[in-house]
Amino acid sequence: MIEFYLDTQTGVSPYLQLVQQVRQALRLGMLKEGDQLPTVKDVVARLAINPNTVFKAYRELEHQGLAAAKPGVGTFITQTLTDESLAAHQPLRQGLVRWLAEARAAGLDTESIEALITDTLRTATHEETA
């Protein structure tokens, strides 16, 4: 089961963070069709957020066709986003872990690492389409 977390530094609204975390878990194969999401009550207790925030995230997942609520039972995943090729790229993941260790050793914090990755990805994408 997925364990949600909130990052107050991102500027992304809490409900969107929950949606993004579910989408990422689906893409990585950590959640599959039929899996149950944590109950609203459990998420509220764990994250100390308003229940409406969790309801809004779950409604958005339903709107995207990724989840469905079963009244009195819970919310369940209805579709996967798994890219089978992601599982085959373990060597890339290992290289990324090594690169992250180098970035940390160079004194970069998480926010700086994310900024560097985002900027590099945008630049590379722009160059590919030019």
From TrEMBL:
InterPro entries per the UniProt record, alphabetical: Tscrpt_reg_HTH_GntR, WH-like_DNA-bd_sf, WH_DNA-bd_sf
UniProt KW keywords: DNA-binding, Transcription, Transcription regulation
Source domain of life: Bacteria
KW DNA-binding (keyword) present: yes
CDD domains membership: WHTH_GntR
Pfam family, one: GntR
KW Transcription regulation (keyword) present: yes
HTH gntR-type domain segment(s): 12-80
PANTHER family recorded: GNTR-FAMILY TRANSCRIPTIONAL REGULATOR, HTH-TYPE TRANSCRIPTIONAL REPRESSOR YTRA
Protein's UniProt name: GntR family transcriptional regulator
Organism, scientific name: Dactylosporangium cerinum
